[in-house]
Structure formats: structure tokens, C-alpha cells
Amino acid sequence: MAVHRLDSAHRIVNRLWQAAPDIQPDLVREFEAVQAWPWISNSYQLVEQSLKLLLAVRQGVPVPELDRRLGRSHDLDKLFAEQEDDDKEEVSRAWESFVELHHYIGVRTVRDFLDSVGGGYVKWRYMLLEGAQSVPANHIGALLEIAQATIARLEFHVFSTRRRFPTVSERIKARLSDAIGQVCNGHLVSGEGDTEDWKRRYARLHDLLRTPQIRLAASAHLDNRDSPTRGPQPPPNPYAQRLPQLEPDLMAIVDQLRRSTERKNFLVYFRR
């Protein structure tokens, strides 16, 4: 049941984060940190508790006993260092794909990332009282990706699932193909063409979504520039209005991606 609870909590936090406004730059660093605080605090918990449970499962000990031995540690780097090699390798594989997409992160290994942020949970938790001077720089999506990969390892060991955890690049490829396929299916169901027309339409939409201007227009639709405190705002950038208008099939695809659990990943994907 603990695995199910962790999986459900991750789905909830990730779904809320994907729909939420992106972190808006601010001249005062503390107010960027305040925007991230609800997500960072919960994401730390997801990573910590999934790593602890994975360690307890692999060592065959109850979590309270593990806590006594580790001194109820909140340090994610120490918890990761205790994991079995095969579990480390799977989480590392997920991380490598994630930073290949989010190349601006600049931390190439999951171990280095957790070394950087691993001891920051308490600092982030009390940041509202103490300020952001000492909190380590972090990344919400990275924490959620590590938690998701760790939960997948728990499902593998506890439920004997054989499904390999799909990396973010694999998820993007599959979700994009599925969205294009659904749009093409709609034409087929309505009687517009046959199987060969479906294939031509599918290939054409794939090609269009590789075009730089179309990708920029798609990213503009995927962006969420609402104010985290004031709510929906008018489009702030008139340049977005000069991007090419997306034809109905492309808009239908982007609408699917905007509602998906990968919205923020697709936003980076189309901006590259």
C-alpha cells in the first residue's frame, strides 16, 4: 500500500505542477523561491520517502528500523548512495535522458545533482521564515523525475512488474505519436480518406512539427505565463502574435499535449 500511496501522490503533485504557471523570473530571488516552495517541498518528500521505501524493500527491513539506523535522515544524497547498484543504474538512466532534454541544468549525473540539493529539504521547508540565502538551487521537474523513476523500481521489486521505466525522451516520442495518431483517426472515423490518406496525414503532421517556426508556435501555446499570485494574465509578448497560426490539426495536437502530464517537458522540447 505504501507503493500505491507514493505513486498516487506523485501523480497528484505532477498533474498539479504540469497545469500550474511556470516559475516567473523576479528581480528579488526570494520571490522566485516562494513560487517554487510548494512544489520543491512536496517533491523532496516524494524523493525521500520513495528512496527510503526502496531501501527498506531491498534490505527486507521495516521503514522505522531503517529510520533508526539512518537517524531519520533527510539527506537525499546519502539515501541514494545506500541503494543497490541496479536501482542506481535505472535512476541514473532516467536522469541522463532528463538532462539531455533540460540541457540548461548542467549537472550530468544524478549523484552530482543529489549531492548539490540532497541536504536542502529543511532549508527549503523553512525558507519562508529564514529567507532563500542558503537554499540550494533546485529543479522541480528533476525531483519529480527522480521520484518517478524510484517508484518504478519499487513497482518492479514489490509487484514483479517487467515494464521498463520509460525515459522522458521515450515518453515524449510515444505521447507525440499518440496525439498525432488520434487526430488522424478522427479524420478516418469521419470518412475523410482511407488508410493511405491516414499514413500521408500522419507523416505530414510529424514533418510539420519538426519545422522551427511551427515548433516555436507550438511552444507559445504550451507556455503558461499566468501569474502564480494574480491568476490568468493577457499575453505579455506581442511577438507570439506574429508566429504562424497553427492549422486545426496541429492545434488539436497541441491541445492534447497541453493537458498531458508532460506539458513542461514538451515546452522545452519544442523550444530546442
Q: Which segments are poorly predicted (pLDDT under 50) over 5 or more consecutive residues? A: none
Note the beta-strand portion.
Answer: under 5%
* Helical residue percent band: 55-70%
Summing up helix and strand content along with how strands pair, one would put the structural category as mainly alpha
Report the span from N to C terminus: 40 Å
The tally of helices reads 14
The ordered string of helix (H) and strand (E) elements is HHHHHHHHHHHHHH
Mean pLDDT: 92
Largest sheet: none
**Tally of DSSP β-strands:** 0
Q: What sort of overall outline do the alpha carbons produce when their principal axes are compared?
A: globular
Describe the protein in words.
Helix content is 68%, strand content 0%. With 272 residues, it is mainly α. Helix 2 packs parallel to helix 9 (140-159). It is globular and about 65 Å long. The relative contact order is 0.12.
Summarize, please.
With 272 residues, the chain is mainly α.
Primary descriptors:
single chain; 272 residues; mainly alpha; 14 helices; globular
Task: Give the helices and strands, then pairings.
Blueprint: H1 2-19, H2 29-59, H3 63-70, H4 76-81, H5 85-101, H6 110-117, H7 121-125, H8 127-130, H9 140-159, H10 168-189, H11 195-208, H12 212-222, H13 248-258, H14 263-271
